[in-house]
Amino acid sequence: MRRWNGWGEESTEVALPAHGQGFLAERVGPGQVLVDASLDQALARVPATRLPAHPLISLDPEERLRHARGQSLPDWLAMRSGEFGIFPDGVAFPESAEHIRQLLDWARQQDAVVIPYGGGTSVAGHINPQAGDRPVLTVSLARMNRLLDIDEDSLIATFGPGANGPQVESQLRARGYTLGHFPQSWELSTLGGWVASRSSGQQSLRYGRIEQLFAGGRVETFAGTLEIPCFPASAAGPDLREMVMGSEGRFGIISEVKVRISRLAEQERFYSVFMPDWQQALQGIRTLAQARVPLSMLRLSNAIETRTQLALAGHPRQIAWLEKYLALRGAGDGKCMLTFGVTGSGGQNAASLKQAKRLLKGFGGVFTGTRLGKKWAENRFRFPYLRHGLWSAGYAVDTLETATDWSNVDSLLNKVEASLREELAAEGERVHVFTHLSHVYGEGSSIYTTYVFRPGASYQQAMSRWQRLKQAASRTIAENRGTISHQHGVGRDHAPYLVAEKGELGLAALQALSVHFDPERRLAPGVLLED
Amino acid sequence: MRRWNGWGEESTEVALPAHGQGFLAERVGPGQVLVDASLDQALARVPATRLPAHPLISLDPEERLRHARGQSLPDWLAMRSGEFGIFPDGVAFPESAEHIRQLLDWARQQDAVVIPYGGGTSVAGHINPQAGDRPVLTVSLARMNRLLDIDEDSLIATFGPGANGPQVESQLRARGYTLGHFPQSWELSTLGGWVASRSSGQQSLRYGRIEQLFAGGRVETFAGTLEIPCFPASAAGPDLREMVMGSEGRFGIISEVKVRISRLAEQERFYSVFMPDWQQALQGIRTLAQARVPLSMLRLSNAIETRTQLALAGHPRQIAWLEKYLALRGAGDGKCMLTFGVTGSGGQNAASLKQAKRLLKGFGGVFTGTRLGKKWAENRFRFPYLRHGLWSAGYAVDTLETATDWSNVDSLLNKVEASLREELAAEGERVHVFTHLSHVYGEGSSIYTTYVFRPGASYQQAMSRWQRLKQAASRTIAENRGTISHQHGVGRDHAPYLVAEKGELGLAALQALSVHFDPERRLAPGVLLED
């Protein structure tokens, strides 16, 4: 069963290894364990619903609780403390576009707010109901999760919007295809959610971001149904797909998604290379990306992340041997771990591997084969579970991310890390901060930063620490040419910073679209655009 | 000097070879030559301007005439007959964003309509002034054509919007870079125009369409300046670049363009392969595209276009030898000519070539080396000049284009060709129709159809024939899952068909944006959206 107050299945547990605990204690101090609320305690606080009964809607308190929060750190603190705050008044489970249209009509009659809900994995407050006079109806697309059609010539698959990562891939794999979209939230997040929030997967280097994968579909809006036909490309005016992607539920509910799929590749391999220092590593991956070497993924940890990963990996003796070997080859204390993948035919992969190896060796890279890459691939969706292990050991962990042009990557990364590292110094707290680059482009790169801190003596203190950290980092991003999100979206948490990149005029244009599609402003109010 | 009534420089002439004339006479009948008007005759019809003098604006009749029409066939007929119809009342030549803002303010004071003008190469009626009470101010960006900055780490170049193809490439090449955007209109069309009309270049397979190249910039609108910052990618809401691309001047005037550039490639080669028949050819290029073989261009002519090209090439004896050789290798009467390019390092190109050859051989392709490919590259921008040669010989020629998914390419292509071929049958006229696919994607392909017909006894008759042909083909496209334009844009000529793909709701969303940016509807009225 899925956890009601954390990530993923209850059966999956990822503990912090003993060695890792020592590593963190040295860096931020001994853990501070807070007591979690029980489900019963949390349920006792669910208020009576303000909605009447409806055959498609559950008013059950547990269902309402399970759809009240996403997976941001504030959501985590709310769930762990049992202080959820606001709950949806009901959770609808439509099974068709027609159901969605009925629910929209009904919501209008009830003067209700409507929150579209995919996998509930938002880390930016997309799906949290807000206090207000209007009742809140959360619309879960979970039952619309089927593969409806494949056009095998055009490699277009049609899905219900609620299909999550495993549902998408297992239905495609059975026919010999893959979507190739693997965000870290893949086990729970959904196709409709990826589209609505402009998601990016770990292998976007080959398969593209959702922008390249989303081919068309249908959106149910309060102003009618928006049908988006599939074309390989078009010059016929602004692209309607681009209005839907990133709209975060503000314009309508996605009821059907057509995506560009690929035949399963003959071969896929992940390799790791240790770069001697950060500057060489940075130049190496920029050169790789700009030379268009056809890799399928590329991820570069900075020196602190490399050290942290090796420490948290367990197996301290094996790691010590590895480090000795690397140091002998020139990758010592400042070393940075780089993982890359090749996906394609055997011949294509051999050619790509050869290019990548030659190029990285020119920057001092020490190639260590597929062993660590294989480990990465096995554990690629396990990181979100680690929050549980850290929490039990008395540490809070959060991540944030941005993207910027190459000329600014190093500078922005340093500023973001510094803003987090220093923010709690006044209260004598240290924050352990580390970063990797996981999506590289010719123009620049994403920057994905993880920070570990102690929650303090209470949930209130934990929340206030998080707020300070998040605000410091978000301001740093907005003031230094970073986008407020490369892959998580805007939601509520990033909405105040959006004006820095869209401008007043650009934001007003998005407001104009919101008014067009949703004249009574019922859909996800406060998300994306601060109303 | 640039021609006032046709394509390109007066010094460049492309005549129809004698052999080609016979070929066409056989297919559509002997040519019908119409008498062209002189520049003086045309100038005599320019009416008095309705605008007062302004230091940035030319009211000169010849300047107004030279900015009155694009390069569509109706434009051609208007220019050749000297019946231009409506002229702009003045042509402004701003040199800065500040100038553009002044001109917008002034246009508001004068209650004038404003038409943004790049290279004047529209083939869909984008820049033609319409009859109306408000005076018309055409704003040419020709003087804003400089490379302003290069970020060499991020490979971002900043240009004035009026830089045309040669200005873009020569300024970049001097520093070791290329944009790699080569639409057929490249000699005259501009960066700002490419963005505004969602242009695609011949090597989009490597460099991407303008959607992938346009990184950010600035747009001057009646509601203020829209600044679009550069990010390699972002999940922060809908992408403002996507509002600008395809807006065709309806939302504002682009005053600065930032583009993603590439280092000049070590090597570039174009090869030709003859496929034994259309079905094998089609499967071959679909497989190539879906296998992600890293080519830089791919163009496949159908059997009629292949025959026509070989006939119009001149050198009938050499062609006869080539055809004999090809027939012996299995590419006889139904053969289809395929040209592809590889661009990159020597090693990358060798790997790509190997993959492409092996794959195409599997579909019966006969590889003929680089000779014809080289010819293609030399003549890649000459096709628009051929209209002159054909016209002098008594033939009108026009092209139209669409894109659709692979499962529909063959069917749509046949329907479009049939609609053109049969449209004039009732009046006993034949139309020579042929097609190539020039932009291939995993999902589908563009379809680019050329049609040659006799103009009849008068310009009126020529225009009415064109209208019937264009309408027949456009309806066929709109009714059969094609986009109304893959690379030329909507303008006025395609606007009536846009609803078929955007839907009423989608069109209304674009109208909402137009009202947002241009509340008094001064910008290019009737373009993109029928007002």
Automatic annotation (TrEMBL), chains A, B:
* Keyword Flavoprotein assigned: yes
Keywords on record: FAD, Flavoprotein
- Give the InterPro entries listed for this entry: Alkyl-DHAP_Synthase, FAD-bd_oxidored_4_C, FAD-bd_PCMH, FAD-bd_PCMH-like_sf, FAD-bd_PCMH_sub1, FAD-bd_PCMH_sub2, FAD-linked_Oxase-like_C, Oxid_FAD_bind_N
Q: Which residues form the FAD-binding PCMH-type domain?
A: 84-264
Stored Pfam families: FAD-oxidase_C, FAD_binding_4
Q: What SUPFAM superfamilies does the record tag this protein with? A: FAD-binding/transporter-associated domain-like, FAD-linked oxidases, C-terminal domain
**Family that this chain belongs to:** Belongs to the FAD-binding oxidoreductase/transferase type 4 family.
**Stored PANTHER family:** ALKYLDIHYDROXYACETONEPHOSPHATE SYNTHASE, PEROXISOMAL
- Name this protein carries in UniProt: FAD-binding oxidoreductase
Protein source organism = Pseudomonas benzenivorans
Q: What lineage does UniProt assign to this protein's organism?
A: Bacteria, Pseudomonadati, Pseudomonadota, Gammaproteobacteria, Pseudomonadales
